[in-house]
Amino acid sequence: MTEKERELLELLEKSGRMSEDKIAMMLDVTVEDVTSMIQKLEKERVIIGYSTIIDWSKVNTSESVTAMIDVKVTPKRGVGFDEVAERIYRFKEVKALYLMSGTYDLSVVIEGKSMSEIARFVSDKLSTLDSVISTTTHFQLKKYKHDGIVFEDRDEDHRIVVSP
Amino acid sequence: MTMSNHLKHQPRLSQTVKQIKPSGIRRFFDLASTMEDVISLGVGEPDFSTPWNVREASIASLEQGITSYTANAGLLELRQLISGYLSKFDTNYSPENEIVVTVGASEGIDLALRATINPGDEVLIVEPCFVSYAPLVSLVGGIPVAVPTSIENGFKVIATEIEQRVTNKTKCILLSYPNNPTGAIMEKDELEEIAQIIQKHDLLVISDEIYAELTYDVNHVSVPALKGMWERTILISGFSKSFAMTGWRLGYVAAPEVYAKEMLKIHQYAMMCASTMAQYAAIEALTNGREEMENMKVSYKQRRNFFVKSLKGIGLDCHIPGGAFYAFPSITSTGLTSEEFAEKLLIEEHVAVVPGTVFGAGGEGHIRCSYATSLQQLEEALKRIDRFIKNC
């Protein structure tokens, strides 16, 4: 990975919508260089995809609930945690899944329309899997910061207008 | 007793102070402050807040009730860290008697001048430069002598320009690279060339290196690190620019003991010590602040690249500023003076820049634009400047 590629990734991570023209100017390379760097990084799946961070709580037609579920499972000989992980992340309700160290094994992030919908998912789908030993469900009450972005940022410029 | 019986007070002011003009920045500040939706490229400080770990360390010191004076020269722990930090620029200063922590680098410049200049001594000042040098020289009775630099040399100072102005009264030269307002830097061979002249005439150097961390293409070379320069240099630096700590007012001077102990005397009587809570913040900045500083530096560099290219794109000639966070484009193509350009741009397009003349007569024909502001603001400012130039 070159220094320019790393800088490019950091710019895109902060703002996926930044134009290639602007990136080229900032990194002091040609637009063609930027295009080919992005293609290369996409091909290598260093860049996995592009998404937008949305504060859904401001969209009043969309009610959604997010829960984080600690799951204890029995790993299987030969495939370890991967097989059960795959069975879990295939559900479209699952937004994120991590293998953890500590007192439980998998951390599952679920999004649903209501608490009862999530409760149904846990009791019907998740707990019934053979390898799952136990689940503990935590509901998110408020999002303060997500992917490095503060949701209610009061980022005012306090500087005086002209200074030496 | 009625009012009319009072004897009238005749203001008892110092002649020296009365002769000093207020900073030219003031007028622009007053004008800009009356307007809304001003996009300011006139700000001489980072657009980042001080990193949270640094702020938090200061809060913790307050919670523990550490609110008393420190040693005059500053906390020894801080001076030790400063000494270690400066050694990365190949300089060696003893924390015990060669470093004084000051109230901003500004106090450091004042201390250096007060400790060394006698009335009538001439002080060479490389211009364009920070607004306070010449007035501070005048306040101690010295005579400021401008050494000009120009866009042709990328605002680097040339040995012959220095030598032409040396007289038998010349005592000192004030250098400031990376430079505010031009963004110019001096590389090692360029500094070595002027170091020869400085040594030949046995001058003292006051080197203001407050922007030392902010160089984007080559590493900063510190004046006292050059051969034969340590013993004749007073180094000025601080935390304001590199660690985004302007409001804390914390800087330092580093110099051979013969100078440091005299500066400490003035500091001791005039200031007692720098703010204690700021010193605790600085300890955290030097201990755990490097990564955050590097991130800020990358962000300045990207904005510099974008801004300078865009300036050229709208037809303003601009050298590539190697350091600090200012671009210093030429506006002579518009036929306006720096003052006219800045004033009209502010009134017509609500964009604040600083006329080059504020930084010395040699700044005529240029404006200082700080690119330490968000990309969106820079883009909008460029759009407005472009429209302004087309209507000129």
Automatic annotation (TrEMBL), chain A:
Organism: Evansella alkalicola
Transmembrane recorded as keyword: no
Coiled coil: none
Protein name: Lrp/AsnC family transcriptional regulator
Pfam families: AsnC_trans_reg
InterPro entries assigned: AsnC-type_HTH_dom (IPR000485), Dimeric_a/b-barrel (IPR011008), HTH-Siroheme_Decarb (IPR050684), Tscrpt_reg_AsnC-like (IPR019888), Tscrpt_reg_AsnC/Lrp_C (IPR019887), WH-like_DNA-bd_sf (IPR036388), WH_DNA-bd_sf (IPR036390)
SMART domains, per database record: HTH_ASNC (SM00344)
Domain HTH asnC-type span(s) in chain numbering: 1-62
TrEMBL record, chain B:
GO terms, molecular function: transaminase activity
Stretches assigned to the Aminotransferase class I/classII large domain: 37-385
Cofactor(s) the protein requires to work: pyridoxal 5'-phosphate
A UniProt-annotated Pfam family: Aminotran_1_2
Top-level taxonomic group: Bacteria
Record Gene3D superfamilies: Aspartate Aminotransferase, domain 1 (3.90.1150.10), Type I PLP-dependent aspartate aminotransferase-like (Major domain) (3.40.640.10)
EC number per UniProt: 2.6.1.-
UniProt xrefs under InterPro entries: Aminotransferase_I/II_large, AspAT/PAT-like, NHTrfase_class1_PyrdxlP-BS, PyrdxlP-dep_Trfase, PyrdxlP-dep_Trfase_major, PyrdxlP-dep_Trfase_small
Keyword terms of this UniProt record: Aminotransferase, Pyridoxal phosphate, Transferase
Leading EC class: transferase
PANTHER family in the cross-refs: ASPARTATE AMINOTRANSFERASE, ASPARTATE AMINOTRANSFERASE-RELATED
Protein family according to the UniProt entry: Belongs to the class-I pyridoxal-phosphate-dependent aminotransferase family.
Name by which UniProt lists this protein: Aminotransferase
Source organism per UniProt: Evansella alkalicola
Lineage, highest ranks first: Bacteria, Bacillati, Bacillota, Bacilli, Bacillales
